[in-house]
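Table S5 (text form). Sequence records supplied for joint modeling of the three-component complex.
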Amino acid sequence: MKDQKNKSILQRKRAVKRNLQAYTFMLPNLILFTVCSLYPVVWTLKYVFYQYGGYGTGVPRFVGLDNLARVFRDKVYWESVMHTFTYGFGKVLIIIPLAFFLAFLLNGQIRGNGVAQSIVFLPTIMSSAVMGLVFYLLFNAYNGEVNKYLMEAGIVTRPINWLGKDQAMKTLILTAVWGGVGNYMVYFIAGIQQVSEDAIESARIDGAGRLQTIWYIIIPMLGPILKIILMLAITSAFHDITNVMVLTEGGPNNSTMVMSLYGYRYFFPISAAEATVPQYGYGAAVSVISAVIAGAVTLGYLKISKKMDSIY
Amino acid sequence: MRLKKIMGITLALLMMTGSLAGCSGGGETNATAASQGGETTAQVETKQTETTSGEKTVINVWSKDRHDATYAQAKVDEYNANNADNIQINYQLYTDNYVQAIDMAVQSGELPDILVQQDQMFDKYVNQGQWANLYDYMDEDMKSYFKSVIFPGYNELDGKLYFIPTTGSTCRLFYNKEIFQRVGIAEPPKILEEVVEDARLINSELSKEGIYGFAENMKSASSGLQRSMCIGLERETGLVRGYDFVKGEYDFTQWADTLKLWKELLSDECAFPGCESLDIDPLRTQFAAGKIGMYMSYSHAEPGVYKNQFPMDSSKWDCVPIPTVGGKVAGKQYFTGTGSYVINAKSPNAEKAFKVYKDVFANEDYLKGYYEGGFGVSILQSVIDKAKPGEDFQKKEWLLISDLDTLLPKPPHSAFASGMVVEGEDMYKTCESIYYGDADIESTLKDLTERYNKAYKEAIKNGTGHEIRIENYDPMNPTLK
Amino acid sequence: MAEMNRKHLSKTAWASIIGKWVFLGIIIIFTLYPVVYTVLGSLKTNAELTQGGGFFPAAWHFENYYQAFVQADFTKYTINSVIVSTSVTLLAAATCSMAGFILARKNFAGKKVLMALYLSMMFVSLGSVTLYPIYELLRALKLNKTIFALIIALTGGQAANVFLVMGFTKGIPRELDEAAIIDGCSLYGVYSRIILPLSKPILAVVALFSFRNAWNDYITSLIMTISMPKLQTLTVAVVQLKYSVNAAAEWHIMLAGASIAIIPILIVYLFANKQFIAGLTAGAVKG
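The corresponding structure-token record, covering 1080 residues in total, follows.
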């Protein structure tokens, strides 16, 4: 009896010690996680229900579901959601085929491939803010290099307004492709390397041409990894904000306003020239709805890709 | 290999703090370790400032103005080198996010001793006693010297004086005389229709050379419109940013005629390409390079800009009042005091800060040099009498403040900005949807009017705002209260 | 196989090789042009940049860098960037390594709840608006006046990296731990002698990407230093140059600033491009 009791006390002591030990290992990360992930999410969820203009504007006022209702009435917000989709799909539609093609060309141990890979991957290590500034200089209508070349070459006579209402989104997508294609190329190379050489070889022997090999062997075998790559591309496109902020500031006439930047706008001024009055509660509501939309797209994508599997 | 070493050391350090935490009860130790770390850097920082400044009192000044930064900095340096009070002024320029930086500084107790006054930050914190009452420090001489620029309801509230404007600004249409001559425009435009016509003429004749009729810094609609269209509208409609002080309500529908013309003005037929993504400074470089026929901006900055920042021959440009539709005039236009500073009432050095303010920024030599250097148009008679302003001010009559320009009362959305929540886009962005979008003018302005009035009424109902109405308000002779 | 092919290249094969490199040439120019423009532009005069000039600078104006470092205070921002990026790198690698190890190897009270929380935070993405509450919290902890606020905010919750390290650690045979324990190693001993050395590859990935993100970050650094300009990092300082005195007349300084911000990471990339590329796949396959 006594022995057993001692044993259980000992066990409990050991358990306590084990837990303490475990938490000392967890603690540094746990602090960071609480401060930077958990707390802000809880804070944001709370302020969805308040109207608050920040320090010096009185106490936050509870408004119930008003902020959420306002999001659903907010035309500009839903336009920004549409822009997010345009931007996201535009980016994905260009970047994925291009990245795949580059991966196909640069896969394998042929001289020059390694260097070319490194160059194509280069933009992904650079600051999208700094490069946004550079692109702003390159693309501005009145003395940007791009127009200068086009006009010298006689392709256009009047400067193209790259950051104007009709072109801004295209320019933005172009710069996003520049910054992202290397990333997806590397994913594809990793994927192609997993497709066994034997399969490709046997297809060749069967007399399949290059395109046929790609279409009938490589792409189907890439299936699973393609799914992951597409998902990464879609979700990351939904979160792009820095390049938009620096290059176009969401304008002109909100034509490049994406939903992440729209929420940001109610917290911090997008541009130096703008004197915004913060609306933290409404900004929180916008961000929560945006997160839900992004989540729904991801889930929807997963569902569809599963259905596609069963069709195959 | 090196990476491994560094990692090992860091981990060992972390483990040490971690295991300490294990014995003495959790997060507390860790938190203190962190805050100790924080203090050490703070100490290092103060040490650094101490070593550079000896035992001097440091007075921090924040400014938002870049056009006069070089002048102010030179004066500050001079003062730092010569003053006998052992004071060191630290002049900091915040061109970006000025209001936001102040918000954060107020919260963290980092607010400097002296700040360049700006409406939004002033209104936000004046009721919390953040700004010092200058009357407390001013002697009789100083009070009488600045008597002419004290306006109850503007800088004097309930018998307390918070800031003293020394220069003034309003908005004008700037134009390139050379370009006008080349295309045969004899007179600068007097009505808004002429602005459109002239811009179209310049574009059609000179766009091959890269010279265009009209430009405005429309990257930010609010920044662009507040120095241009909104000013003309004040004279044209007698409303202040769409607010009718007689009726006590907003009415943007009166903006329709002007907006129609602005839409033409910003179209490819009239405008400099890329106005949509233009900030004011790039616009000025292009104007100085002779690429732009006309633009509208604040009157106080341009002479200094074309003298120092982007050199342009003074004889090549001039300015006129911003034209209205058909030359209609129903009111006065915006004028604001500039060159004003507020003093942080909660600063431990408030008294010394006032001394600095008085000796540097409110000093007559400073003000004279400021006016002469073309950084602002003086509104103090004694400075105007003594100064020899640059040729710009002698030859260009509309650079001076005229009887078109006057202080206007504040409409609700700026009187209690954070208390009045307008759903949807503000008036500037809404205008953008008209001139850069396909929004229908009539219905959009009607909707805008409804949204502003609704927000105003709700602010009153919630107690976050109050009714603003001025008895016997006359737009041609506005009163502040 | 490839050797054999090369000897018997047919005309169509030649055409396809030429086609490949023409296409790649275009892509490479497209990729490199903005970078080369930045670096070469940083050595031009403003007039060359804004009013037209050759591809190469007419004369090499290295004094632009002097101006950027001295007059535009870039020395200070560079130091800030170095401090912030290395601190973030070390903090991220260290905390992830410890947390990943314990989650992979030990059971403890509340582990399931923690894992669920970490996992859910990976999917809840509220974006940059969370910087406001983080700033507020750090202000309440009186950290906002120091560079620690930025370091903490930039390091972030690290949930994804914790899972990455956890997954990697799970792949290390448990027998090694057990052997060490029999040899008398404590939990810490197992971690430092067995797991840490063996998880070097994955920690290098975490470190490399943390460094890249910290060095390149704009928004977090902007917000965290908004009232303390002397703590600004290079990226923030470069973008702010756009609004500085004379910005429109100083494109050359802007580009010199941009070069100062991108050249260090370019050098890192020159030596570690294989690791970057390999690391990306390691992250993606797990993620």
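Note: Chain B has two domains: 55-168+336-401, 171-334+408-462.
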